Amino acid sequence: MEKWYLMTIVVLIGLTVRWTVSLNSYSGAGKPPMFGDYEAQRHWQEITFNLPVKQWYFNSSDNNLQYWGLDYPPLTAYHSLLCAYVAKFINPDWIALHTSRGYESQAHKLFMRTTVLIADLLIYIPAVVLYCCCLKDISTKKKIANALCILLYPGLILIDYGHFQNIYNSVSLGFALWGVLGVSCDWDLLGSLAFCLAINYKQMELYHSLPFFCFLLGKCFKKGLKGKGFVLLVKLACTVVASFVLCWLPFFTEREQTLQVLRRLFPVDRGLFEDKVANIWCSFNVFLKIRDILPRHIQLIMSFCFTFLSLLPACIKLTLQPSSKGFRLTLLKLYSVILFFFLYHFRPVCLVLSEIPFMSTWFLLVSTFSLLPLLLKDELLMPSVVTTMAFFIACVTSFSIFEKTSEEELQLKSFSISVRKYLPCFTFLSRMIQYLFLISVITMVLLTLMTVTLDPPQKLPDLFSVLVCFVSCLNFLFFLVYFNIIIMWDSKSGRNQKKIS
Amino acid sequence: MAAFTIAAGTGNWFSALALGVTLLKCLLIPTYHSTDFEVHRNWLAITHSLPISQWYYEATSEWTLDYPPFFAWFEYILSHVAKYFDQEMLNVRNLNYSSSRTLLFQRFSVIFMDVLFVYAVHECCKCIDGKKVGKELTEKPKFILSVLLLWNFGLLIVDHIHFQYNGFLFGLMLLSIARLFQKRHMEGAFFFAVLLHFKHIYLYVAPAYGVYLLRSYCFTANKPDGSIRWNSFSFVRVISLGLVVFLVSALSLGPFLALNQLPQVFSRLFPFKRGLCHAYWAPNFWALYNALDKVLSVIGLKLKFLDPNNIPKASMTSGLVQQFQHTVLPSVTPLTTLICTLIAILPSIFCLWFKPQGPRGFLRCLTLCALSSFMFGWHVHEKAILLAILPMSLLSVQKAGDASIFLILTTTGHYSLFPLLFTAPELPIKILLMLLFTIYSISSLKTLFRKEKPLFNWMETFYLLGLGPLEVCCEFVFPFTSWKEGNGSRLKNTLLLPTQTRI
């Protein structure tokens, strides 16, 4: 069957799953006074529509920043404004200043869900489709299977269409993906423009900026700083500056405006973690109350330093030897590190799904599992179980992941050869990983069952949430080690190959 | 680990398809459900809390039991599982009771019973001989048939959104067809007899079964030219078939015969007091007849041929289920519809008798019986089109001619089911699923038969493409005009009629 028919069907399946998940409850449904992230989105439409631009980020009688104040960059605000215009056309009560607080109705829910779907359809899904079509060295069937698995990834669907997070993740992720696509296919200007838009949509994307920067810098170096490289560098710089200026134009008029926006975007008084998240600090906190010992700004500086230092070798390598694959792998490493420290963004693991299907599938399953406490709070158990199973089945049948657990397939060949120099009996790596996978899956299933059926003991009311975080964190630690090994040994084999050639 | 690999990783496509659609069905749990949900809850309550003698007399709720006894026993068995979910749903007085647990139970019961349908599809795939088109899995007839049946759009929205138990019933029908293909006639007859006592709508296709079994099973051999050999008649076979049907019927109707309730049961099963057309017109011949009558009456009034005082007040288009008189054209009685149906199925029955072509001929006759009954039957539901679509899927993967007819039938048939889901949240679902099924069916069958002539001529392509704008008009334009949406769907249905006449 022709490729575009199959791709259309895959996209339709993705859209159907998204819409059916959206029929469920959302965060903060029917829970005054603060409600939840859904109300935050509605409130931003109210604010951006009714107030002038200069007041969007400032505390005032009309704009109480304590009640879901705007804390994402201007592009989010513009998007909310656009949605608000549509809302005004349909029903002005949805965004009436002050009186629409806590507005909940079936029609409004339909409207909000539709805005997410349209944003997804316009930005994220085309990026995924194009990305899969541009993958090299794999058959058409595998490309389409890749697209199916990425579109079925439960984490993104459940957060955007179930929980309704107060940011349209698919938009920022879509832009970032366009950025990756552009930069990998040598459309550097487009790529960097897209990535700037991503940063201006959600400031968390700044974390990805280091690999982007290093990769593009490396490309400039490769072309030679005295000729084409310099031209490229200038062009890139202009693109970045221009996109930032365009987005921030209304806020550059006064210094106070710019500062206030920055203050809202980077609240330095928030700590290392909120609620129970599956990062290292939360797990560490169980043993040593680190949150209480160190002052807030020290915590922040510490985590930034760790992240930066662990990324430095890979980034340097990327600058010296810019390659598409190296770029993707560095992004991957970046994610594992960030996850480890902050818990944000696991989706771009999807990028290497076709190359390391087994580990990627495992990783994505764990990342979905780590969301469990959040999803249970929003009564999303059924959609989460169903979408996770669908994703798993899609990966298993598309990539036959259980047949790809040999050392070579896991890209651990060079690593195990090096280890075998010291330990000749180290032949059981592949089987060990399979058993670890089995244990991991069984633990996740058991924990899910326990969380759903049993009540936690009186003295430890958060027992299950903490256990979920702990288990997820252990898994992420394993992945961190794994991805580091891949990158380091990939560089070594790369160097060896260079010597030979 | 090896066992795990075999179970999960060998790429068993059939299991993946079945599991995938089951997961989709689970996602459809929170969607809109129609009054059929309350119907089945009521039947659970009736069969659970009342003795058998009361089952066909109970009328607290307007949704009285009007399916044959086997279905009542099925609801009885279900009710014993239901009591663990929510005891309150089994109270006959709890009208319109729909707690979240009730919803969960009912939806899961439908999903669970679909296991029989999955098994039947598996058996049907065995009856298809694989044409050597290509090595690609997705181009094998078995694969295409599995998707067309397991992921059938009509079945998904009628069973898992609108709420009905058609899955396992069609499973029984497909199983009986598969058994006939496998020359296991007694089993085929048995399954069909059981099916009739689950839902009597399958009487529509009983003539096909009757004639085929008589001609091709009871007469054990043919003359060399294919015509009937009278002396090969086997009394043993006739009697054993009769015995099977008799025993099944005895099991089903026996208790009610003993209670002298047969007339009451039959009046419940065949309610002729309901009108010629269902609340939403099924796109059949009588819908056109009604439309013509309406048009003529409007013209007659304008041209002063008719006296306004003589026009009956009740309107056929009001969406109610009643008996009507036609204004201009002669009124239609149940007997008329029966005669029309019999005339319509006569050609195919004759073919099946005089020129039997084995199981494939039987399947063709079955599809035609279903379609003729749909066109000319009394009080036909639009869901009855599935009776023709599902068996035809088996024919579509084997011959190009059948494939093109199938595609037109299935696209328009599925489209005619759209009025069943009229709520806003379900609009994207029905459009997405319809697009999914239509694109898949057209592209896969086109690929399968790419070496033969194209499946559609320009008229058919134009007709099919016209469905898109029609849907846009009905869903987005009509509601904002002075016409009520109800009229829009009737317009839609009458426009779908040409497809039936082509077949």
TrEMBL record, chain A:
One of its GO terms (cellular component) is endoplasmic reticulum membrane. It is a multi-pass membrane protein. Pathway: Protein modification; protein glycosylation. The gene is ALG6. This is Alpha-1,3-glucosyltransferase. It comes from the Eukaryota. PANTHER family: DOLICHYL GLYCOSYLTRANSFERASE, DOLICHYL PYROPHOSPHATE MAN9GLCNAC2 ALPHA-1,3-GLUCOSYLTRANSFERASE. It catalyses: an alpha-D-Man-(1->2)-alpha-D-Man-(1->2)-alpha-D-Man-(1->3)-[alpha-D-Man-(1->2)-alpha-D-Man-(1->3)-[alpha-D-Man-(1->2)-alpha-D-Man-(1->6)]-alpha-D-Man-(1->6)]-beta-D-Man-(1->4)-beta-D-GlcNAc-(1->4)-alpha-D-GlcNAc-diphospho-di-trans,poly-cis-dolichol + a di-trans,poly-cis-dolichyl beta-D-glucosyl phosphate = an alpha-D-Glc-(1->3)-alpha-D-Man-(1->2)-alpha-D-Man-(1->2)-alpha-D-Man-(1->3)-[alpha-D-Man-(1->2)-alpha-D-Man-(1->3)-[alpha-D-Man-(1->2)-alpha-D-Man-(1->6)]-alpha-D-Man-(1->6)]-beta-D-Man-(1->4)-beta-D-GlcNAc-(1->4)-alpha-D-GlcNAc-diphospho-di-trans,poly-cis-dolichol + a di-trans,poly-cis-dolichyl phosphate + H(+). Its EC number is 2.4.1.-. Residues 1-22 form the signal peptide. The lineage of its organism: Eukaryota, Metazoa, Chordata, Craniata, Vertebrata. It is found in: Endoplasmic reticulum membrane. Keywords: Endoplasmic reticulum, Glycosyltransferase, Membrane, Signal, Transferase, Transmembrane, Transmembrane helix. It comes from Macaca nemestrina. It is an enzyme of class 2 (transferase). The keyword Membrane applies. One of its GO terms (molecular function) is dolichyl pyrophosphate Man9GlcNAc2 alpha-1,3-glucosyltransferase activity. The chain crosses the membrane at residues 110-132, 144-164, 176-199, 229-251, 300-320, 381-402, 423-451, 463-489. Belongs to the ALG6/ALG8 glucosyltransferase family. Dolichyl pyrophosphate Man9GlcNAc2 alpha-1,3-glucosyltransferase that operates in the biosynthetic pathway of dolichol-linked oligosaccharides, the glycan precursors employed in protein asparagine (N)-glycosylation. The assembly of dolichol-linked oligosaccharides begins on the cytosolic side of the endoplasmic reticulum membrane and finishes in its lumen. The sequential addition of sugars to dolichol pyrophosphate produces dolichol-linked oligosaccharides containing fourteen sugars, including two GlcNAcs, nine mannoses and three glucoses. Pfam families: Alg6_Alg8.
Automatic annotation (TrEMBL), chain B:
It is found in: Endoplasmic reticulum membrane. Pfam families: Alg6_Alg8. It is a multi-pass membrane protein. InterPro entries: Glyco_trans_ALG6/ALG8. Residues 1-18 form the signal peptide. Its EC number is 2.4.1.-. It comes from Macaca nemestrina. This is Alpha-1,3-glucosyltransferase. GO terms for cellular component: endoplasmic reticulum membrane. The gene is ALG8. GO terms for biological process: protein N-linked glycosylation.
